Structure formats: structure tokens, C-alpha cells
Amino acid sequence: MDEKLFTVKEFELNNHCPECYSRDGLQLTFKQKFVENAFYRAITNETTYSMFCNVCKTDISPSRWTDDIDSVISYQKKALVPKSATFKLKKTSWLLLILAILIIIALNVFIFVN
Transmembrane ranges (predicted)? Predict the structure, then answer.
């Protein structure tokens, strides 16, 4: 099973970076989980977020956030509209499902004829 994250939305923040104290380059990224295997493709409701400073090139962990950053992230989490959860069967699944139905029908016909 292959689990991936795709970017839902990115925000440029005007807050100071807790590492380099630059006011430019702080970026908040929201990602949503995407699961794919041989039988189906699905988007889940699970979202994650991360913060990165483009000036000092560091990931900013939640323990380093200031109260201002925390309030901005809380607001952005409430305002975020993720993609709706979907579930789609692939051709392999449809073929196996149709094959199983045909086998059940054939067995029923064989049992009732004999």
C-alpha cells in the first residue's frame, strides 16, 4: 500500500521565524493523505501541516512556535477546506468483482440444474 501526501494549500506567513528571526520566507503547508494500491485509490480526511523557513532553510517544529504563530495556524486550520474523502476502485478490483459474481452465478446454475 502506497501512502502519499499531496499539498492542499500553502501560505506565506508574515511572522518572525523562531530560528533566524527573519520576517520573510516563513511558509505553512497543509497536506492531505492519499492512499493507492493495486485495487483502489483513496483520499482520506487526514491532514497534516508543517512550517518551513525559506531564509534559513529549516523546518520549524511546533515546540518552537510563538503564540503569534500558534494563533495564525489555528486560524488557518479552521479556514482550510480539504478535499473530500473519496474511494475509487481500479480496473483490477472491478474485474475480480465481476469474476466472483460470474462464478457465483455459474455455481448456482450448476446446482439448480443438477
Answer: 93-113
Of 76, 92, 75, 82, nearest to 44 by C-alpha is: 82
Strand pairing report for 58-60 and 2-13:
unpaired
Closest by CA position to 10, among listed 59, 53, 55, 49: 49
Residue 98 has pLDDT above 90, yes or no: yes
- Using DSSP, state whether 5 is helix, strand or coil: strand
- List the alpha helices (DSSP H) in 64-90: 67-79
Contact call for residues 43 and 32 (beta carbons, < 8 A): yes
Question: What is the number of structural domains in the chain?
Answer: 1
